[in-house]
Structure formats: structure tokens, C-alpha cells
Design brief:
The protein is mostly helical and 196 residues long. It has seven helices and no strands. The radius of gyration is 24 Å and the shape is elongated.
Length: 196
């Protein structure tokens, strides 16, 4: 028989309890999963988990952006052509518009979608992804929107150029706009707007 040489703390550790007698999150079988769940439900998270949370929040905001953009581009300010992949996939009837009107409406539709998706992104970011408080609230909001406006302006400019200069489809231009905006937004929001 093995001799018990450990004190009360050793027995607690073997039972999966911390020195105060509470269940430890670092216990095999519950530590890794418990830690990840805690990071997903709270604000404090490892950078990799935070990026996944940012990606999920971004996906929600992007869904809002896509829905608002395409409703506007299809029904309010026409910006879709018959050759557009979204038109072909969804069999949408579209009104023929000139390239100059289509590129102008692309910008208008992008601005409208931006307003809705950016509000969605801000709310999710302050509640779930980042820790607010690096700046006073009004400065934080101003910086959030400034970063968003900068990234959307660069992305929309790229999209406008792709339509006007290269004659690319609205959907291809929209994807280019989104990629540029996501890269700029994450870096600036993490290091300039919020507390990381």
C-alpha cells in the first residue's frame, strides 16, 4: 500500500479542487473546454479566440450588409446587371441601367448597407468581442465610425474602379470591397479603438 505523504492541498489538487476547495478549471476533461467556453461567453479571450469571435461578429454584420446591399441594388437603386452572378443564381429580374448609373448606384447602395451593418458591428463588438473603455464613449464611437468610414471608402473606391475601369461584375466588386474593409477594420479596432 502507498503511503499518503501529501497534505490537504495535495488531496484537493488530486480531486480537481483548487487550494480553496473549489473545482479547478484546469482539470483534465473540463479545463480546455471550460476555458474556451469561458472565453466565448466573456470579454477576456486569447487572441485566437478573440479573432474567432470577431469573425463571427463580422459574419453577422456582413450578413446584414449583404442583405441590405442586394435589396437596395435590386429594388431601390438598381446596380445589378443581367450578367451578375447574384442575378443568375437567384433568377432576379433586373432593370437595365447604364454603367455610369450602375457604378453610382453601387456607391449609394454601399453607403446604405454600411450604415446598417456598422451599427450591428459596433453593438456586437462592445458587448462581446472587445473591451470598451480605451477612450471615452463618444471618442470610441467616433473612432469606430472613422475606421469604418475609412475602410469602406477604400473598399468602395476599389469596387467602383473595378466596375468602371475593368468592367467587372457588381458581385466581384462587392467581394473586393469586403475583403479590403475586413482587413483594415480588425487591425484598427483592435489596436486603436478598443482595449485589444
Amino acid at each position: 500500500m502507498l503511503e499518503d505523504t501529501g497534505g490537504p492541498q495535495d488531496k484537493r489538487a488530486c480531486a480537481g479542487l483548487d487550494p480553496r476547495g473549489k473545482r479547478s478549471m484546469n482539470q483534465p476533461g473540463n479545463g480546455a473546454i471550460g476555458s474556451i467556453v469561458k472565453q466565448f461567453t466573456g470579454r477576456q479571450a486569447h487572441p485566437a479566440v478573440q479573432f474567432v469571435k470577431y469573425s463571427i461578429a463580422g459574419a453577422v454584420a456582413t450578413l446584414v450588409d449583404v442583405l441590405v446591399f442586394y435589396v437596395c441594388a435590386w429594388m431601390i437603386f438598381p446596380a445589378l446587371g443581367n450578367d451578375d452572378i447574384a442575378v443568375r443564381l437567384l433568377s432576379l429580374p433586373v432593370r437595365a441601367v447604364s454603367e455610369s448609373l450602375r457604378s453610382r448606384n453601387f456607391v449609394i447602395d454601399s453607403i446604405i448597407a454600411f450604415l446598417f451593418s456598422n451599427l450591428t458591428a459596433y453593438l456586437i463588438n462592445i458587448v462581446w468581442v472587445f473591451t470598451p473603455g480605451r477612450h471615452r464613449r463618444h471618442v470610441e464611437i467616433a473612432l469606430f465610425y472613422a475606421v469604418s468610414v475609412s475602410s469602406i471608402a477604400i473598399g468602395t473606391g476599389v469596387g467602383w474602379m473595378l466596375i468602371t475601369v475593368l468592367g467587372m461584375s457588381t458581385t466581384s466588386s462587392y467581394v473586393a470591397k469586403m475583403v479590403a474593409a475586413v482587413m483594415i477594420n480588425y487591425v484598427c479596432r483592435k489596436y486603436l479603438v478598443f482595449r485589444g
